[in-house]
Amino acid sequence: MPETADRDANHPLRARLDDVFGRYQRLRSDVDDIQRRLAEVRISAESEDGLIRATVGPRGQLLDLRLDRRIYRDMDAGRLSHAIVETTARAAELAAAEVQRLMAGYLPVDSGPMRYLRDDDLGSLLHRQDAAMREADPGHG
Fold first, then answer.
1. Tens digits of residue pLDDT in 77-103
2. Terminal-residue alpha carbon distance, the chain
3. Which of 2, 43, 82, 140 is the most buried (most CB within 10 A)?
């Protein structure tokens, strides 16, 4: 009887492990497809007046910049540079959201890599390892 009770008590843990393992297997088998899909990410944003169009890649890198010729009539160099930076930043934010959307099907929401993509916090990649180290050596944490 105790063996059955132990098995029942471990059922939620086993289900979680099966879920994580299934996601890992899917990620491993789909890694080429994910890399291709991420490399194909191209996101564009326009300035509020529609005179600037910035296109960025998956890491927010500027790939293309289009300036309508009417822009030179209304803006000085300072305003123009500010508008370009603002438009490019908006495109980069949209690209980051698209990368998160693509990866969400492969990684748990609370995983270090997803937190890094969402929060841009490199420390989130080591969060679990830090916790394990503090637990293993309580005198140093």
1. 899 999 999 999 999 999 999 998 988
2. 42
3. 43
Please report, as a single letter, which amino acid is at residue 91. Answer: A
Whether domain 31-108 has CATH 3.30.1310.10: the reply is yes
Tokens for 59, please give them: 């890491």
Here the tokens at position 93 are 């934010």
Distance from C-alpha of 109 to C-alpha of 129, rounded to nearest angstrom = 17
pLDDT at 141 over 60: no
Domain extent listing, the chain: 31-108, 109-141
Q: What distance in Å separates the CA atoms of residue 111 and residue 127, rounded to the nearest whole number? A: 9
**Residue 43, helix vs strand vs coil:** strand
DSSP 8-state code for residue 21: H
Task: Count other C-beta atoms under 10 Å from residue 92's C-beta.
Answer: 20
Q: Is 108 helix (H, G, I), strand (E, B) or coil?
A: coil
DSSP state of 140: G
Pull the structure tokens for residue 10: 């471990």
Q: What is the pLDDT of residue 91?
A: 98
Residues facing 54 on adjacent strands: 45, 65
